[in-house]
Amino acid sequence: MKATLQKETRSAQAQPVEYVAPEVNIFETKDGYILEAEMPGVTKAGLEITLEGCEMTIVGHREVSVSPGEALLRESRDASFRRVFQLDPVIDTARIGARVDQGVLTLTLPKSEKVKPRKISVE
Amino acid sequence: MNNLIRWNRPELGTWSGFGRLTDLRDEIDRLFEAPMAEWERSSQLLSGWTPALDLFEDKDNVIVRVEVPGMKKEDIEVSLHEGNLSISGERKYEEKKEEAEVYRAERFFGRFQRTVSLPSVVESGKVKAQYQDGILTITLPKAEEAKPKHIDVNIS
Fold first, then answer.
1. What is the pLDDT of residues A36-52, one digit of tens each?
2. Residues of chain A found within 8 Å of residue B97, distances taken between Cβ atoms
3. CATH classification at residue B83
4. pTM for this one?
5. DSSP codes, B1-59
6. Which residue among B13, B56, B71 sits closest to A71, beta carbon to beta carbon?
7. B25 lies in a domain?
């Protein structure tokens, strides 16, 4: 009885997920940052973006594809994507926007209004 | 020769912010310092964009999968010639960013091409290609004569 229980716990743990870092482009404009991350095979459902203080973690779960036949050559990997970023404190985290299109995640990270240069008129 | 496993950057710890990074130069420096054997595994800095390609075969079809995220399907070309399948295209860089400062530019832009020899004769008229979630999947039905046939053995 005990032996069966142990076996079940082991399989419930599943294999540790292997991650690779997606390639990113990061730009800064006067209004904010734009981050593009390449995650082929990842859909909106597979994306997890979490924010903890100034740290942002992007995870893209690849759909485990059923092999369409016998593999003769495999260069792609089943690994999911993960990358962590330290955000510039000027970013207004409440207004971060995200969209995904053809395997590319585009994040817009606007700067908070009060940080932008602005004119102060003199009375 | 060692395993020619395509190198994917392993997941690193936290990036130290969006500060100014001269890592492109560092990467090139590292490339020159590393022994020759490392070059094969190094970044695609030298070889240009080579999207990952998978080749599968079942009894009815040959299937080719190429990872080319962020493309428009009209910028992808697929052609078949004498048993070789060629996939090429160009990923155009959008010049929409006015006065943007670039912090990291790891993504490739420009042309790419992959050619693969097919393991079987296919019906070129029935080839289907689909582009979804950044993955191009090409299904090539095998020609009738290439499919495995069951041969009855008669013992008289």
1. 999 999 999 999 999 99
2. 27, 29, 34
3. 2.60.40.790
4. 0.72
5. ----PPP-PBP-S---TTS---HHHHHHHHHHHS-HHHHHHS-TTTT-----EEEEE-S
6. B56
7. yes
